[in-house]
Give the backbone structure.
Amino acid sequence: MTLVCISCGKNITPGEKHSKFKCPGCNEVVIVRCSKCKLFSSIYKCPKCGYEGP
């Protein structure tokens, strides 16, 4: 399964640093963010509940 950053849409390559966690809003969708988007606090939005976070 290919992981994709929810903020920028970039494919996460195997071994690349990233963060992966359940949405704080609905606790159902898994949010994946590349290290660059996490570093720059890029906004993400949950596709299920609309929760937005940096």
